[in-house]
Amino acid sequence: MLYREAGQFKTSYDADMAIFPIAQDRWGMIAIVVIAVVIIPLFTSDYIMGSLMIPFLIWGLSAIGLNILTGYAGQLSLGHGGFMAVGGFAAYNLAVRVPEIPILGTFIIAGLIAAAVGVVFGLPSLRIKGFYLAVTTLAAQFFIEWVFANFPWFTGGTMSMTLDTPSMVVFGYAIESTRDHYLLTLGIVLVLTLAAKNMVRSQLGRAWMAIRDMDVAAEVIGIRPLRTKLTAFAVSSFYAGVAGALYAFAFLKSLDITAYDLFRSFLVLFMIIIGGLGSILGSFLGAAFIILLPIFINVVAHNFSDQIKPDFITNAELMIFGGLIIFFLIVEPFGLARLWMTAKEKLRLWPFPH
Amino acid sequence: MTNGKSIGDTLLRVDDVSVSFGAVAALTDVSFEIREREILAIIGPNGAGKTTMLNVLNGVYQPDHGTMTFNDRTYTRMRPSEAAEHGIARTFQNVALFRGMTTLDNIFTGRTLKMKSNLFMQAIYWGPAQKVEREHRQAVERIIDFLEIEEIRKVPVGRLPYGLQKRVELGRALAAEPKLLLLDEPMAGMNLEEKEDMCRFILDVNEEFGTTIALIEHDMGVVMDISDRVVVLDYGRKIADGHPDVVRQDSAVIDAYLGVAHDAA
Lengths: 354, 265
Ligand SMILES: Nc1ncnc2c1ncn2[C@@H]1O[C@H](COP(=O)(O)OP(=O)(O)OP(=O)(O)O)[C@@H](O)[C@H]1O
Ligand SMILES: [Mg+2]
Description:
CATH architecture of the largest domain in chain B: 3-Layer(aba) Sandwich
Number of domains of chain B: 2
Bound molecules: adenosine-5'-triphosphate, magnesium ion
Oligomer: heterodimer
Strand order of the largest sheet of chain B: 6-7-8-3-9-10
CATH class of the largest domain in chain B: Alpha Beta
Number of helices of chain B: 10
Mean pLDDT of chain B: 89
Strand order of the largest sheet of chain A: 1-4
Largest sheet of chain A: 2 strands, antiparallel
CATH topology of the largest domain in chain B: Rossmann fold
CATH topology of the largest domain in chain A: ABC transporter involved in vitamin B12 uptake, BtuC
Number of strands of chain B: 10
């Protein structure tokens, strides 16, 4: 009986409404935060922080954004990469043209600009649903890519394909080392994750899920469908925008439209399907899975033989993704997060089955 | 059982409402009224237009002509969310719960219009936003106690048996503290015990909170027991309107029920 609720009597609704009502979960979260904030920066290499943790955090953040729109509010989107691009390009232009704004403010404004663009492309969602909405968001993806690739104004007047992002200073502290970049990313991701968790467990999150599960009944209760869907587009694109800005500034250290292509939109969609639709935890599980899988396949392939061609590895990656997505869609539509919940429920009853 | 309560003035009046779907005339010139604090039963054979009537009352369908007057305001159409703002709540013939959400969250959504908190406050979940959540949680818990569904508070409603789903749906409608509650066959598909519970809840809501209720029901025993007045529809027309005992003797009503093969008549 390692993990149970018994004995933890909730004496008030506040306790029951706490973000992690079960003590073991609370301690688990504290442990994870301590590892992320203290252990990793102190004891791991630049490779772990720069090549694993930073992309993991950024894609996790982006996946939260898509999960809010698709997993919670039920609006399928294939334009998430495009909204990330808006964030990346907005942050770059702000940082270069208005360097007076502190970098955190720049990221927030970039997120807000992405949110505004998301709302515009979310407008059709009042009338069209499911597959047709996905096609509309696909159009958003292509339109955004086309704009950034063809209007030199967005790339500082040059036609150069990649631009270095300016250096960052946070509260007078210059962000230089990989560790600095990691900690900056971690701080932003932690704050936005907490905010997302709070939104989905309050009135707003319930309205999103109500629209997802049965929009007619939601409207009869007084939930306004358009406003609720547009809020989901706005919040989702804000997260995409900040993630896109971080992707340019903290990971690539350059701005390049090809880093936000349709494949990235699909990748984030895979993350939330594998990780778990309608789950904040699942967004990170899915991101970890998709980031780590290629690395894992690479290591395995190289250990077995150095004869394997690189394109075979890429193909193997895609085949494994495809297989897993089919598996999760058919067998466990709520993804890794649900598998984890089931495991916890088993643990809660262990050693007595029922 | 309904002695002693004072039925008041007209709360909602329906005047000459007609609705058609292509060639099907679902409702033809229907007029009736719902009075404050009464339980009104709308009955009639299958396809008589009962559900269509409820859908008109809370704005899901728009009448081809005719008006409604609610709280002295006359209108021809309003959106379902406006009807909700004016205090009309309802349940559906085929349970329309949010399947992926728990009982608690489903009932919580019923309080949507009562909760005022902005996005930013909800994101930080502090101060006013938390206070709002707590207050409304108490209101939701009162409904959970009232409907005796404490055990299933945290269960996703998709996993509940049908009878309990109907009960949760009633809870969601009650959470809005409506002036007028519309129930579409609240007891359909229930066993005897579940029906008795549901009757008790409906009567309690009516007596304790003074909520006006209009319900559709096929079980004549139930209708005779709990309703103050009955409106009978047949082929989209109103054929009778009055006290249950009077309506039961009405020859047009008897013909309508005998003329159509019907299980509950
Ligand atoms: N959305 C719709 N589109 C087309 N026809 C409809 C629609 N809704 C109802 N109808 C038709 O209108 C008529 C009345 O239907 P309604 O559902 O109001 O009947 P009802 O009295 O509730 O019947 P039941 O007892 O079977 O629930 C039926 O002939 C039905 O087929
Ligand atoms: Mg019906």
